[in-house]
Amino acid sequence: MIEAGVHIGGETRRGAGGEVELAEPATGEQLATLALAAESDVDAAVDAARAALAGEWARAPATERARLLHALADGLRAGRNDLAAVEARNVGKAISSVKAELAAATETFRFYASVAAAPSGRTGTLGGSLTHYSLKQPVGVCAQIVPWNYPLMMAAWKLAPALAAGCTTVLKPDPRTPLSALWLAELAAEVGIPAGVVNVLPAPGTPVGSHLVAHPGVDKVAFTGSTATGGEIMRLCADPIKRVTLELGGKSPSIVFADADLDEAIPASVWSIYYSAGQSCEARSRLLVEASVYDEVVSRFTEAAGRLKVGDPLDAETHMGSLIDAGHRDRVHGYVERAGGAGAEVVLGGELPDGAGAFYPATVVANVDAGSEAAQEEIFGPVVAVTPFADEREAVAIANGVRYGLMATVWTGDPNRAQRLARRIDAGTIGLNMPYTAFPGVAFGGFKQSGFGRELSAGALEEYLEEKSVIVAAGNRPSNPFGL
Known about the structure:
Blueprint: E1 2-4, E2 6-8, E3 11-13, E4 19-23, E5 30-35, H1 39-54, H2 62-78, H3 80-91, H4 95-115, E6 123-127, E7 130-138, E8 141-145, H5 151-165, E9 168-172, H6 179-191, E10 198-200, H7 205-214, E11 220-224, H8 227-238, E12 243-247, E13 253-256, H9 262-274, E14 286-290, H10 294-305, H11 326-341, E15 345-348, E16 363-366, H12 373-376, E17 383-389, H13 392-400, E18 404-405, E19 407-411, H14 415-424, E20 429-432, E21 447-448, E22 451-452, E23 465-473
Parallel strand pairs: 1-5, 8-9, 8-11, 9-10, 11-12, 13-14, 13-19, 14-17, 16-17, 19-20
Antiparallel strand pairs: 2-3, 4-5, 6-7, 7-23, 12-22, 15-16, 18-21
Helix pairs in contact: 1-7, 2-4, 2-5, 2-6, 3-4, 4-5, 9-10
């Protein structure tokens, strides 16, 4: 049995917010006992972060911060097998996916270690005796809030650029999936990152998360989660004018044209919705198919999805584990039932399974109207909505006809069409004849209600830096504009 709490000022201790039991989503068995954070823990963590910011961390050479980020990456790699097992049990997803996420987290720390010294100021002359240069300094204390679906990977996405920039952090993981973030905080202390630089507070969004966001000692908020919660965070940050970056929901399409290589497009499209049981903001949960190949694609997609192995997250052969909990599974099932009632055809799955665990089968809903709930709302489960289109113009209209704009994949044998759609589709990332989404060094973020700001790229480091301009009078004439 794992006992977990909060990590503040370099030490793990019990939180003051009461104790809860964490169950494994796939089995219902108890995994851990967690002492949640309370508002008093937020105050202590922010104080610790501010003290660390005033200490040596913000002034440390970029090379020193880079060394420590590499040490974090080394520690992740060394502990990867045990950590992957804990993460799979805590989240319920297949361990094959968890291992890929752990590798991505490791490479994220390495990438930001490599660019920690990259941001540089500018210099120039203003004419006459005036010259100028700019300085860059850490934004300050950053509140970072990550969701339950990628606890470790999202923690790395948030922490790595903040630490590379010299900021200090208070990270709030979802209280259902805090174990890997707490492990990471303890690793940070072990490798020598100063106390107070990384603080971790598992807690509910209300009231503890709200208190963290609104705390006067917090200078910036970075959030990954639902669009609705992102809106609430913006409101809390509006009055004090805090820096904010938001990575929110998605309703991303895979667009399959008749000239695509279907032998590649179909299995890749199956992966792009079901690889995390659909519990991913950039999952391609809409499959848009050109009418002339619609029946073939639906048939072949359904056959391939029906061969996915759903079961024990710790089994290396499992493709999909469980959903996060029974309540979320019931929510997903409600979407499927309503889609069927609205005239769409459930051609695969769509039934609540018997037995323990929050499992839900790979589900295909065909003939979905582009304006219906199933095509517009983020179901966040292993459910794909299939819609036909007549031509390129209609494909773009349907792809852009949602409030989100995070990811899109285009499958076509026409390279000119691929480039046209890359320009015309409103999404932060466009995949052309490939399903993959996120790589360290490639900016990741959304259009419209999928949020603003970018993560993973070198440019994301700038989100954690302030630029200061310095103007210098180099001449010997006094400044006396009033002629006094």
